[in-house]
Each structure stands twice: as structure tokens, then as C-alpha cells.
Design goal:
CATH class: Alpha Beta
Radius of gyration: 17 Å
Order of helices and strands: HHEEHHEHEHEEHH
Structural class: alpha/beta
Helix content: 25-40%
Number of helices: 8
Number of strands: 6
Largest sheet: 6 strands, mixed
Number of domains: 1
Length: 232
């Protein structure tokens, strides 16, 4: 079994956070009306993608009726529709749709993960829950040895990525990179961190984030990867 597979199996059996365990299981039992005939995953959601990835996309946490339902990160909700459409457009995915774990989606040179692996109440993990889950992101950063670019979807994911890097012993710049949409921070260990607004409905329905804005982030990532590793 591959090392990432071992990690992901460990993630799916995690019960560290009682509040998150209770919430994800309650949602999986109650269901949303439109999904009442679905069997919900109802467990922590592992990372997904290519173990040789040059691009890592980090989000906040699974959606209650998205990843918590389908068992795959950013799958089965509007945010996932935006993300995988952009990944497909710039050559990181074989298709634009992401509906369930058996839909044939494969990522190329890209891995997708989250700062917290269980759907949290109100989409707001506590500081203690971030701390309990950080080990999983840190393991992924160790195992994804070819990373050139990290795209953080939202300020929380941006800050959690930097905090994880600090705990791994990386030398962070002073002052720390500041999150804004489209920000580009070249870090001393050879990774470029790009900030993006999260493709949540709160952002996309209000026009705070448009598809051209979102696509430019992935276009920038593709260009950086091509410059860093022309074979990618």
C-alpha cells in the first residue's frame, strides 16, 4: 500500500474531535431532503489526487452535504464545481465534473486537501480542532515531495498552511505573507503560495469571486510550475 493511502486510511478512521464526530454523523443520519436516498459518507474526508503533484490546493473543511456526503474533498457541492472546472481548464484534471467517488475523476500533477477533515458545525472549526487535525496536513506536506505551488482557498486555509510549515521547521519570512486574492508569495523552501478567495456560494453569488478571477489563480499556478519544472 502506498504511503498516502496509509495516511488516508488513518484519516478516515479518526475520532479525535468529539464535536466533529457527533456533527458529521448527525448530518449523515438526518440528510438533506434532496439527498435522502443517498448513503452519506459521514466520516473524515481524506486528501485526493496525484502523489507526484506539483500543485497542492488547500481548503478549510468538507461541506456537510458535499464531502461529508460523497467522501471526496470538494465533491458534490457548488464549491467543488468551481474548483474542478478550473483544474480541468488548466490541465490538472481529466474532467470538469466532480459528483461522487466513482465518477472517473483523476487529478494530474495536483493534490487537494483541507485544514480540517470533518464537516464542522456552522463551517467553523475551533482552534483545538485545527490543532488536532494539523498532523494530517503536515504528513501530506512531507509526502508530497514535488510541490512547487500551494493554492490556499480562503484566509483560514492560507494561515493554517503557514502555521503547519512553521511547525515543520520551515523558515518563514518576516513579516508573514498576507492573504489577499491573487497574492503570490515565494517561500524559501521552493514553494510559491497563492491566495484565492474560497469558491463558496457566499463569494460566488455576490460576485466577490468571479470565474475569471478564480481561473487566473490556476493559470498563474500552471505558469509557475512550467517555469520550475518544464516536464510537468
Amino acid at each position: 500500500m502506498k504511503t498516502l493511502d496509509i495516511l488516508n486510511d488513518r484519516i478516515t478512521h479518526c475520532v479525535r474531535c468529539p464535536r466533529l464526530v457527533a456533527h458529521r454523523e448527525q448530518v449523515a443520519c438526518a440528510k438533506r431532503r434532496q439527498y435522502r436516498d443517498c448513503t452519506y459518507w459521514g466520516r473524515p474526508v481524506p486528501g485526493f489526487g496525484d502523489a507526484q503533484a506539483a500543485l497542492l490546493v488547500v481548503g478549510l473543511a468538507p461541506a456537510a452535504h458535499g464531502g461529508n456526503r460523497t467522501g471526496r474533498v470538494f465533491t458534490g457541492d457548488r464549491s467543488g464545481d468551481w474548483l474542478y472546472e478550473a483544474l480541468h481548464r488548466y490541465g490538472f484534471a481529466n474532467q470538469a465534473r466532480s459528483e461522487n467517488r466513482d465518477d472517473g475523476l483523476k487529478l494530474k500533477n495536483c493534490y487537494v486537501a483541507a485544514a480540517v477533515r470533518c464537516a464542522p458545525p456552522g463551517n467553523k472549526p475551533t482552534p483545538e480542532e485545527f490543532d488536532a487535525c494539523r498532523e494530517y496536513l503536515s504528513y501530506e506536506l512531507r509526502l508530497l515531495k514535488r510541490l512547487h505551488v500551494v493554492i490556499a482557498l480562503g484566509k483560514i486555509a492560507f494561515d493554517q498552511y503557514l502555521k503547519t510549515c512553521r511547525l515543520l521547521g520551515y523558515s518563514l519570512p518576516s513579516p508573514l505573507p498576507r492573504f489577499q486574492h491573487g497574492s503570490v508569495s515565494r517561500l524559501s523552501w521552493g514553494v510559491t503560495l497563492i491566495g484565492s478567495y474560497h469558491p463558496s456560494q457566499q463569494n460566488t453569488f455576490t460576485g466577490r469571486l468571479t470565474r475569471p478571477m478564480f481561473h487566473r489563480v490556476f493559470q498563474q499556478a500552471r505558469l509557475i510550475i512550467a517555469q520550475s519544472d518544464p516536464t510537468s
